[in-house]
Amino acid sequence: MPRGTDIEARLVSASLGADPLLRAGCEAVREGEAEAGLPLLAESREDPETRVVQAEALGRAAAERPETVVELVGNGADRADVMLWLGHTLLARALRRPAGGAATRQADRKAFAAALDEARIPLEAAARLRTDDAAPWAGLQTIAMGLGADREEKDRLWRELTERAPHLFPAHMIRTRSLSATRGGSTEEMFAFAGATADTAPEGNPLPSVLALAHAEHVRAEQKRLGAEGNTPLVVHNALGRLHGESARELFDLAQGWATASVPHPRDVQAHHLFGWAFHRAGMAEAAHWHLSAVGNVYCDQPWSFFGNARAGVALAMEELGVDPARTAGGELPS
């Protein structure tokens, strides 16, 4: 079994997609061949889940060269596709900036807000150009959370999204986080939303994993509270929030239900990481091992980045659980 830094060296970020075809397109875009992204966006116009994944990944790939995306309009590319892509490119650039916190200077916070506002313009244009497309609204939802928009604006964007794609995975991820106590909501409201999402998800859909995301948000908030109260780092690190007893069992049952009936979905790797993190944190080693074995060598930032470096966090969990990222395991579900 590989250990420690050996595991970390084998892990590949999901930021450019978990699908090999998308990753290849993103690599071409990073090398300056922006045209490689257009067929992907054209083929996904009727599939909002895939379209959002592709727009996000292509945006990150082009973040260092936004001008190559702008040039596509003059070359006759579909304007709605390009505006969607440009919006996510500028959003990816904005999210690399210092976003807030006590250590962030006011000038940095203003620059972050200005960068988000810049990304809003092409996304709103994309929404006008293709009115049935949910993908621009998903980007606008992320911007609203980053800017700390009021509840009325968050609710408006949520309605626009659910009218177009009622079960869009990333929209439910952002909605869960937007309802947290740290963003103007409450712990109770966040868990109520995530629980209702899990209960009403279509069979085989990875949406139940948003409840694990709610737990991650809550654990992070609890750790901050305990740290502010002067507790020792060990006490802070070991905080479980609600990840024990009946709550852990509920999460386990939801994961079982999804895994038993799952159908291929662009966010499967993300869901496995959410469940894998939750079960690892709760000390449910067998379940955590099963989910983290399913991701191969691809890691996701959320929820691991809530608690430090995501790649290092995934590698440490895999080492503790005896997961080899070179093997994508299947096998029987944990009981």
Protein model, in words:
- There is one protein chain.
- This protein is an all-alpha fold and 335 residues long.
- The protein has two domains: 1-17 and 168-335, no CATH class; 32-166, Serine Threonine Protein Phosphatase 5, Tetratricopeptide repeat.
- The protein is 64% helix and 1% strand.
- The protein has helices spanning 4-10, 20-30, 38-43, 48-61, 66-74, 79-95, 106-129, 135-147, 151-164, 169-178, 187-200, 210-228, 233-237, 245-261, 268-281, 285-293, 310-321, and strands at 12-13, 298-299.
- Strands 1-2 form a two-stranded parallel ribbon.
- The chain starts with a helix and ends in a 14-residue tail after the last helix.
Helix content: 55-70%
Determine the N-to-C terminus distance: 24 Å
Can you give the mean pLDDT? 92
Order of helices and strands: HEHHHHHHHHHHHHHHHEH
Q: Count up the helices.
A: 17
Output the strand order for the largest sheet: 1-2
Helix-strand category: mainly alpha
Strand-residue proportion: under 5%
**Compute the gyration radius: what is it?**
20 Å
**Major β-sheet annotation:** 2 strands, parallel
The count of DSSP E runs of length 2 or more, i.e. the number of strands, is 2
List the helices and strands and how they pair.
Blueprint: H1 4-10, E1 12-13, H2 20-30, H3 38-43, H4 48-61, H5 66-74, H6 79-95, H7 106-129, H8 135-147, H9 151-164, H10 169-178, H11 187-200, H12 210-228, H13 233-237, H14 245-261, H15 268-281, H16 285-293, E2 298-299, H17 310-321
Parallel strand pairs: 1-2
